UniProtKB/TrEMBL annotation:
Gene: MLO
Listed InterPro entries: Mlo
Record's subcellular location: Membrane
GO molecular function: calmodulin binding
Topological relation to the membrane, as annotated: Multi-pass membrane protein
Leader peptide range in chain numbering: none
Protein name: MLO-like protein
Cross-referenced PANTHER family: MLO-LIKE PROTEIN 1, MLO-LIKE PROTEIN 12
Residues passing through the membrane, by range: 14-37, 58-77, 154-175, 279-298, 304-325, 363-382, 402-419
C-alpha cells in the first residue's frame, strides 16, 4: 500500500522553520553579494558593468516570477483536460519507448504515471504525481494538459536555465577580457619611435604595399565570391590581427580625435569599455529570444531528429558572423584603394553602417547574443534532462545525440568567445 506524504499539519514546526531559515539565509547572502558587486562597479566607475548587473537582477527577477506563477498555477493548469488523441501527439518518446518504460497502460490510459510500485511496495519518489489525491481528467476519459509533476519539472528547468545563462555571461566576459590583454603590447608599440617612423604622415606609399594592403588587397579581393571564401577561412587564423588592430586604431583616431592626440589615446581601453557596453546587451533576454527558446522546446519531438541539426545552428550563425566581420575589414581596405593607389602616411579606414547587414551594426550583436543564449539553453536542457530522466532518455536516447550536444555546446561557446571582439 502506498504511503501518503505528510502535509504541513503533520510536520514538526522546527523542521519547517529550519527550511525557511536556510532559504532566507541563502537568498540574503546572494542579495548582499550582488549589492557588493554593484557598489564595487560604481567605485571603479564601471557604469556599463553596473547596468549589466541591473539587467542580471531583472532577468533573475523575471525567472523567479515565472517560477512563482508555475507554483501558484500548478493545480489549475493540471486540471485543464484535453482529449487523449490530441495528448498522444508530439511526444519526445516513441510509442515503443513509452511502452517499454511505463507499460502498455501508459499508452491506453494516456496518464503520465500510474501506480508503479518498487520492490518494497512504495511509490517511486521520482515517478509519483505531484497532485492532491486523484487525476480529475482521468475520470473524464481525458488527459491533463500538463500534469502537476510536469509543471514541477519545468520549474526545475527554469532554475537550471537561469544558472547557466548567468554563468555563460560571466565566463564570456572574463574570456573576452583575457583575450584583449595581448592588445596592450600592440598599444604600447604605438608609442615607440619605430612605429612613428613607419607611419610618418608625410610618407607616400602604394596602398597595396602597406601591411594592411598586403593582407586585404590581393587577387582574392577582386571577386565578391572569392572574398567571402577567403574571409570565411581567415577567421580561423586570428579574429583580430596586429595589422588590423593598428589600422582600425589609426582610422578611429583620424575620424574622432583632434590632430596630435594619437600618442595620448589608448585604443585598447576604449575597446574594453565597448566590451562592457556590449555586455549590458548580451546579459538581457529579449522577448524574441524567449520565443526562440519556446521553439527549441517544441523541436524536442520524436521523429524530428533535432539532435542532428539543432546544435549546429548556433555554430553556423557564429561562423557566418565571423566571416562577415572579416568581410567588413577587407571592404575597408578596398575603399582605401578606390580612393587612389597611393596613400599618404598610414592608410585611413572609414567604417560605415552600410557595411553591415541591413545597415544595422547592432544586428550582429543580436546574433551574437542569440548564440550565447541558445548555447546556454541547450547545455541547461541537457543537464536538466539528465538529472530528471538519467543520461539516456527520450530527449537524447542515442549515444551520438549525447556526444553531439555536449561537443557542440562547448565548441559553440569557445567559437563565440573567439569572435565576439573580432
Amino acid at each position: 500500500m502506498a504511503i501518503k506524504e505528510r502535509s504541513l499539519e503533520e510536520t514538526p514546526t522546527w523542521a519547517v522553520a529550519v527550511v525557511c531559515f536556510v532559504l532566507l539565509f541563502i537568498s540574503i547572502m546572494i542579495e548582499y553579494f550582488l549589492h557588493f558587486i554593484g557598489h564595487w562597479f560604481k567605485k571603479k566607475h564601471k557604469k556599463a558593468l553596473s547596468e549589466a548587473l541591473e539587467k542580471v537582477k531583472a532577468e533573475l527577477m523575471l525567472l523567479g516570477f515565472i517560477s512563482l506563477l508555475l507554483v501558484v498555477l500548478q493545480t489549475p493548469v493540471s486540471q485543464i483536460c484535453i482529449p487523449r488523441n490530441i495528448a498522444a501527439t508530439w511526444h519526445p518518446c516513441s510509442n515503443q519507448q513509452e511502452i517499454a518504460k511505463y507499460g502498455k497502460d501508459y499508452i491506453d490510459d494516456g496518464r503520465k504515471i500510474l501506480e508503479d510500485f518498487d520492490s518494497n511496495d512504495f511509490y517511486s519518489p521520482r515517478r509519483s504525481l505531484a497532485t492532491k489525491g486523484y487525476d480529475k481528467c482521468a475520470e473524464k476519459g481525458k488527459v491533463a494538459l500538463v500534469s502537476a509533476y510536469g509543471i514541477h519539472q519545468l520549474h526545475i528547468f527554469i532554475f537550471v536555465l537561469a544558472v547557466f545563462h548567468v554563468l555563460y555571461c560571466i565566463i564570456t566576459y572574463a574570456l573576452g577580457k583575457t583575450k584583449m590583454k595581448k592588445w596592450k603590447s600592440w598599444e604600447r608599440e604605438t608609442k615607440t619611435i619605430e612605429y612613428q617612423y613607419a607611419n610618418d604622415p608625410e610618407r607616400f606609399r602604394f596602398a597595396r604595399d602597406t601591411s594592411f594592403g598586403r593582407r586585404h588587397l590581393n587577387i582574392w579581393s577582386k571577386s565578391t565570391f572569392t572574398l567571402w571564401i577567403t574571409c570565411f577561412f581567415r577567421q580561423f587564423f586570428g579574429s583580430v590581427t596586429k595589422v588590423d588592430y593598428l589600422t582600425l586604431r589609426h582610422g578611429f583616431i583620424m575620424a574622432h580625435l583632434p590632430a596630435g592626440s594619437a600618442a595620448r589615446f589608448d585604443f585598447q581601453k576604449y575597446i574594453e569599455r565597448s566590451l562592457e557596453q556590449d555586455f549590458t546587451v548580451v546579459v538581457g533576454i529579449s522577448p524574441l529570444i524567449w520565443c526562440i527558446a519556446v521553439l527549441f522546446i517544441l523541436t524536442n519531438t520524436h521523429g524530428w531528429n533535432s539532435y542532428l541539426w539543432l546544435p549546429f545552428i548556433p555554430l553556423l550563425v557564429i561562423l557566418i558572423v565571423g566571416a562577415k566581420l572579416q568581410m567588413i575589414i577587407s571592404k575597408l581596405g578596398l575603399r582605401i584603394q578606390e580612393k587612389g593607389d597611393v596613400v599618404k602616411g598610414a592608410p585611413v579606414v572609414e567604417p560605415g553602417d552600410d557595411l553591415f547587414w541591413f545597415g544595422r551594426p547592432r544586428f550582429i550583436l543580436f546574433l551574437i547574443h542569440l548564440v550565447l543564449f541558445t548555447n546556454a539553453f541547450q547545455l541547461a536542457f541537457f543537464v536538466w534532462s539528465t538529472y530528471e530522466f538519467t543520461l539516456k532518455n527520450c530527449f537524447h536516447h542515442k549515444t551520438e545525440d549525447i556526444a553531439i550536444r555536449i561537443t557542440m555546446g562547448f565548441v559553440n561557446f569557445f567559437n563565440y568567445t573567439y569572435y565576439t571582439k573580432a
